[in-house]
Amino acid sequence: MALGNHSAITEFILLGLSADPHVQVLSFVLFLAIYLLTLLGNLTMMLVIRADSHLHTPMYFFLSHLSFLDFCFSSATVPKMLEILLSQKKTVSVEACLAQVFFVFDLGGTEACLLSVMAYDRYAAICHPLLYGQKMSNQLCKGLALGSWSLGFLDAFINILLAMDFDFCRDQFIPSYSCELPSLFPLSCSDVSTSLTILLCSSLLHGLGTCFLIILSYTLIVSTILSISSSSHRSKAFSTCSSHLTAVLLFYCSAFLRYIVPTSGSPLELVFSVQYSVMTPLMNPLVYSLKNNEVKAAMKRTFRKYLHC
């Protein structure tokens, strides 16, 4: 697809969060701290899962993929935002903008698939504990992870292929700190109806499809847990799902609000975008480390081992 079509406008101006220099400096400090914590949290999670043999299970195999995803997701958006907050020239080339759109879409789609796979893992562990090893074999886990990455890539590739044919000759201003596909539609003077339809259909199919699998898994999980006679066992079973449920709610609520709600350029839309691409990658490692006793114990063992080295 010809990027040469983008002759009228070769770069966009990202308006960011605020035009006030004092707010920009404070925002830079805040988002730099969030970014560093995100990198640290997700790298720590990956290191602990790799180093501690107690976490070499399907659940934590998928969690390590989720941590890597969040590491990449944050790195696809936040560094450019930090640059814009400090720079006088708040521009991004059309090609760089489309590349960012692709990676945000790819990583977001992969995360949706991975969260549904993790829900199936919890279903297999709680509803079929005796067959869990057979149901979640090493080969199947690798296949499910690969499938999640492949579906995310395919979804992003289809959408970006159509976006690469846009002719941008209207306003250069994007009322955000990053490039996302919904923000590009108002800037195009070519027909975007096909791309808009594909975006809506792919978002609904991808989002609702994975959401349906999660709801189905948890319906069966709840039904199984309620049939357990011991209250302590019920509580333990619920606690193994609480971290994943929190991650699901954080991701799906912000993603649906960002991609399903029509683009308006309102401040609320900017809040949804920040929640989706900045806060969610930070919250996932915090949720899994604070709410999961196995991860907390593994962290203590890992840090103790490295301190003694």
TrEMBL record:
The chain crosses the membrane at residues 25-48, 140-162, 204-229, 241-261, 273-290. Residues 41-288 form the G-protein coupled receptors family 1 profile domain. It is a multi-pass membrane protein. The keyword tRNA processing does not apply. Keywords: Cell membrane, G-protein coupled receptor, Membrane, Olfaction, Receptor, Sensory transduction, Transducer, Transmembrane, Transmembrane helix. InterPro entries: GPCR_Rhodpsn, GPCR_Rhodpsn_7TM, Olfact_rcpt. Putative odorant or sperm cell receptor. PANTHER family: OLFACTORY RECEPTOR (PTHR48001). Belongs to the G-protein coupled receptor 1 family. This is Olfactory receptor.
